[in-house]
Amino acid sequence: MMNKLNIIGASLAVLFASSGCVSRGNDTGYEYAPDMYYSKGYEPYNQADSFAVNPYGMSMRVPVAGSIALGKSAFIYPMANTGEGYEAAATQVVAPPEGIDLVETRGKYMYNIYCTACHGLEGNNDGKVFQKVASLKPAWKGYSDDYIKNLEEGKIYHTLTYGKNNMGSHASVLEPMDRWRVVKYVKLLSSKGAVSTADTTLAVANTMSN
């Protein structure tokens, strides 16, 4: 009798153990006390379930139309990405009234990162890209041309924001104030000799640390 009970007990143990481990296809098995694993509150960056009250079943809510993130008002750019918008930028897009600082340090630093590949260190259109890709022919020889000297700063800012011809948009890598610094630095290069040739490595390092 005892042997039979032992056999029955062992069989039941194996049965329960196997039933708890079986997982077929997309069935992940059973879950006990799920409230201990998943929060029932709305967590914007944790897409655990599909929420019927939000668009597309997202956990994150879509910002209210027309709203601006805190501290991001400078990123609003009103000019359209059209020829008319480019021309309007000549007079309607101006540098902030408080002035642009760090042109020869921060401006030069950002220019060297994002512009020299095509336009070269001195703005002579002799960067590595123009050297290697013969089909890329700029419409002007360099920043010393009258075209760049007379080009309105608003148009340069517009070009940095949207891109133009072979040049792509730099809006994702240059925040608005840095775009203005690059614009001012381009104007310094176009004036030939106005740019200081002194080593600004220490100044740039201090600027970046600040």
In short:
With 210 residues, the protein is mainly α.
What features would you describe in this structure?
The protein is an all-alpha fold. It has a domain at 73-209: Cytochrome c-like domain (Cytochrome Bc1 Complex, Chain D, domain 2). The chain has helices spanning 2-21, 83-92, 103-114, 116-119, 128-132, 146-150, 153-162, 176-190, 201-209. Helix 3 crosses helix 8 (176-190). The radius of gyration is 31 Å and the shape is elongated.
Describe the SSE topology.
Layout: H1 2-21, H2 83-92, H3 103-114, H4 116-119, H5 128-132, H6 146-150, H7 153-162, H8 176-190, H9 201-209
List keywords for this structure.
210 residues; mainly alpha; Cytochrome Bc1 Complex, Chain D, domain 2; 9 helices; elongated; disordered C terminus
Listing every helix as H and every strand as E from the N terminus to the C terminus, the arrangement reads HHHHHHHHH
| SSE-based structural type | mainly alpha
Question: How many whole angstroms does the radius of gyration measure?
Answer: 31 Å
The CATH first-level class of the domain at 73-209 comes to Mainly Alpha
Per CATH, the architecture of the domain at 73-209 is Orthogonal Bundle
SS element count, helices? 9
Distance between termini? 84 Å
